[in-house]
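Kindly review both lines to help learners:
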Amino acid sequence: MSSYKLPRLAKTPNVKNKQVLLVASGDLRLSANQDCWAAQNEMEKALGKAVASLGYRIVRAHPYNPKEKHGFISSQKQGMSIFARIDPKAPLIVAEAVWQYTHHVLPGLLTHRGPICTVANWSGTWPGLVGMLNLNGSLTKAGKKYSTLWAEDFNHPAFREKLKTWLKTGSVQHKISHVKPLSRIRVPGPERKLGETLAAQLKTEKAIMGIFDEGCMGMYNAIIPDELLHPTGVYKERLSQSALYYETTQVSDAEAKAVRRWYDAKGIKFVTGPDPRKHLTNQQILLQCKMYIAAMRIADDFGCATIGIQYQQGLKDLLPASDLVEGTLNNKDRPPVRSRDGKRILYPGEPLPHFNEVDECAGLDGLMIYRVHKAMGQPVENTLHDVRWGDWDATGTIKDYVWVLEISGAVPPAHLIGGWRGASSERQPGMFFRLGGGTLKGVSKPGEIVWSRVFVEDGRLKLDIGRGAVVKLPKAETERRWKLTTPQWPVMHAVTYGVSRDQFMAKHKANHIQVAYARNAADADKALLARAAMAAAMGMEVSVCGKRKNGAAW
């Protein structure tokens, strides 16, 4: 009988009674982890006190690294190593005060057998809420059970009570009474017919989604499996950011300068300076103009109806950020781009819908919005935003709870007060982008919106959709919110009809939210119903969230 040398398995010591393990997923970029560590450390101390007050003790599953000057898990490799050596049955908290790369911890969480709770502080300083929602959406897609908690103050009785429930039972629930399945809503004939016809057209006359490298920043929830996407009539063209870089280098200075002149004529303000390490420079803008032309030409080459650039990794070491490019692509009124032979204008008179951070769920949703709104004669420009944060209006001008929705520049100028003339472009923070590049910054105009999110759960595509409005806040309040988040980025002050802060957080399964304007409240209601009907005809499970503007139920 043969014998073999068996590998030595990692030891996983059991945690003691009333001990809770804590892990913190971070960024891949050292600069981001170092800059954000102080906020994470402060959050963990407050959370530790809350847990201790209930008779339990937090034990960090990985130490602070004095050489790197942070205590985050900063790679998938490191995450796997840590999870291989912790008690797989222990109660586990994933604490997030910052943006995090989900794939750093996802492999360990998927095999962890103990109860899991994701926790975020309610702060806009670093996007911890965005990171937690991304992780939640990824766990949801993977079919992994978890609980989730959030709070401005971990001493608040409501938070303590829910935390106590999780510590005792391993599970905590939130109310989602604002959610109603589409099957319980009457969709009028014209909107139903339009949605179903557009779905049928898409299945017959299939569309191509251009993917410039899949899987940005570990966002597992942002990848739609092919077998779920194909029945909708949409297919991926997997492209490489190296091709985008090469094509950018082939664009002439003359062509790029023509785009810059178009920008200047439209009135966008470029906030430039002399030092490329600190300031936005004309050379960075010129490269962004070249990238815009390159993206249009590659999309035309492959017949793409929508494209997504990965944005955060790869290209950041070769080119300035793609934000100005993305916002321009999403706008109907944009610089004309000719084919390489100069004989054709590409995508004349229409946007080329772009989904930031190659979030395919946003890409599918954005394509649906474009087709529904175009058929209805409504504004076609749409974008995703980060669910960055929210707060009450400190001036008391707006009585509703006002969300801060931000994304780094993919917002079309058609969404901004003043359009192109109301927009500015500022250098991306060096913490994320060494080579700079300008954003497309502004304040979103007041108006009626439809918000939505396509996501994967239970092995199928789903759509949450609701109504809301963009409100105008006093300048001082806007500045306060920008200073507490990222002032270089565009901002949307949004209210969600019939959906409270905690209801939204309990149900939303992504770091991103898709938004589109309609001309008035009645048209927005119709656009919502038509898109819901289209999604259902495409095979999605649709839930309508909240109420109409007047508070009436759907």
Notes: The two ends are 71 Å apart (CA to CA). Residues 184-545 form a domain with the L-fucose Isomerase; Chain A, domain 3 fold (CATH 3.20.14.10). DSSP finds 15 helices and 18 strands in the chain.
